[in-house]
Amino acid sequence: MNIKKKTDCKYIVLLLIFMAFIAACSDHNHPTDILENLPILPEKELRGIWMTTAWGLDWPMGNYDEKVQKKLYTDYLDLCESCHINAIFFQVRSMADAFYDSRYESWSKTITGVTGQKPSYDVLNFLIDEAHKRGIQFHAWINPYRIATRADKSQSFSELDAKIPQMWVKDYDKVRIYNPALPEVWQRISDIVKELLSHYDVDGIHFDDYFYPSLSSSESMKDDAEYAQYGKGTFGSIEDFRRHNVDTVVQKVQQVIRDVKPWVVFSISPAADNTYNYNTIYADVLKWSQNGWTDVIIPQLYFSTGTDDSSFNQLLYWWSQFTYKNTLMVGYGIYKFGDSTQGEQFQSSDDLKKQFAYATSMKKVKGGLLYSAKYLTENKVGITDVIKDEYKNPALPPCVISSMANNKPEVPSGVLASKGELSWTGTGQEEVKYAVYKSNGPGKTATLLGTTSGTSYPLSEKGTYFVTSVNRYNVESDLSKLTRWGN
C-alpha cells in the first residue's frame, strides 16, 4: 500500500471515531461532557414513615372489613405521595404473627380480629403492590423477639401459638419473648426473614429497638442456665453473652438477605440513648456499624432541639460520629407535636422545622423516618404542612449498600419530547426503573418529576428534560441526552 492510501485510511478511521464520539454525546451525557454545561442531580434522600400495626395503632385501627382496610391503607399512601414520602416501613410482624401464610407463625389477629384466621385477600401483596404503584418503597418492619404483652403479671398471656415451641419462650412481668439465648431461636428468626424475602417483593427488612426486654428493677432476666450451657468460659460476663446473642441474630439476618435478595436494605432503629441500647437491651449498635452487619441505622431522636445531652441536635451530633460502615438516618417523633403533655417546644411546628434544618446541615444524614403514619393525617399544629414544605419535590432514596455504589445501570437512549409526552428507549436491564427530570439550566440542580417502570412520562409544561435509569440498589445512571419540549 502506498503512502497516500495509508494516509487516506488514517483520515477515514479518525473521521469514524469522531463521528462515533459526536453520536454518543448527542444521546448520552457521559463524563466526557463538559460538566458545567450539565444540570446537577438533586441529593438523594430516604423519606420514610413508620406504619404501626401493633394493637392496630396506625392500621387497621380495629377495622376488619377488607374494603375498609384497603381504603385506609391507600388513603395513607395517597397522603404520603402528596408529601413526597418515598418509603413506608410497615410493621408486618409485631407479636410473632404473620401478615402472610407462614409455616412458622399464624395469621395476625390484627387483620381479622382472630389469631390464625386467614383473611379474604393477600394482605402483604396488596400492601406492597399499592406502595410500588406510587413509586414508594416497602420496608417490612419486624419485631424479632416479642410474642405477647400484658399489663402486669396478674393477667395471663394469650395462648401460645401451636407453631411456637414452648421451650423457646421466656415470660416476664409484661412481655413474652422468644428466648434470645437459644440457637434454635436465632435460626427461627433467620428462617422467618428468608420466607418473607422468598415470597414477597420487599425493599427492606427493618428492626426497631426491641431486643432483650427492658425489665423493672424487681425482675431478673432468668438466663443463668443458658449462660452456663452456652456462654460460661467463652464470655467475660453474662452481659457480653447477651450482646453476643443479639449480634448473632443481626449477622444471620444480614446474611440471609445477601443470599436471597442482596439489594434488600437491612435497617435497625435503636433507642436514642446508646447506653440504654448497650446495657439494658444488649444491642451493640456501634459494633454492628463497625462490622457492616447493617446497612442503615436510624436512631429514634424523639426530642426537641436544645443544648442538653438529650436534645435532638446533641444526640444527632453524637450518632454522626459513629456511622462507620452504615448510612445514618433520623427518626423523628412527630407524634409528640400538639400533645399537651410533651412540653412547650412541641406545642407548635417550629421545632420540627429546626430538626429538619439541623439534620439537613449534617452531611452524613441521608434521610429520615416519621413516627408514625396516623399523626401525618391529623396534622396537629401544622406538622404535615411543615413536612410538605420540607419535601417540596420528589427525591430518590440513596444507595446504602456501598459495595454496589459504582455499578451504574445503562443510560436510557432515544429520548424524545412530543405532544406532551417524554419517551425513551429502555435499557433492557431487569429490575430498572426510570427517573424523569426537568432541567433548570446548566450547573443548576434539576427537579425530579417522578419515576416510572415504563418508557414514557406525561409533560405539563414546556422545558428541557432528561431521564436516568435506577436499579434495585438505588444506583442511578448517568444522564440521558437533554431534549426540549415547547417553544
Q: How many beta-strand segments?
A: 21
What is the number of helices? 13
CA distance, first residue to last residue: 54 Å
* Helix percentage range: 25-40%
SS-based structural class? alpha/beta
Q: Tell me the strand percentage band.
A: 15-25%
Low-confidence stretches: 3-7, 12-35
Reported for the largest beta sheet, the result is: 8 strands, parallel, barrel
Report mean pLDDT, rounded to a whole number.
Answer: 93
Radius of gyration: 26 Å
Specify the overall morphology: globular
Strand arrangement, major sheet: 2-3-4-8-9-10-12-13
SSE map:
Elements: H1 3-27, E1 28-29, E2 46-51, H2 66-82, E3 87-93, H3 109-112, H4 123-133, E4 137-142, E5 146-149, E6 169-171, E7 175-178, H5 183-199, E8 204-207, H6 224-231, H7 238-260, E9 265-268, H8 274-279, H9 285-291, E10 296-297, E11 300-301, H10 312-320, E12 327-332, H11 350-361, E13 365-371, H12 373-378, H13 383-390, E14 413-418, E15 421-425, E16 433-439, E17 447-452, E18 456-458, E19 463-470, E20 479-480, E21 483-485
Parallel strand pairs: 2-3, 2-13, 3-4, 4-8, 8-9, 9-10, 10-12, 11-12, 12-13
Antiparallel strand pairs: 1-20, 5-7, 6-7, 14-15, 15-18, 16-17, 16-19, 19-21
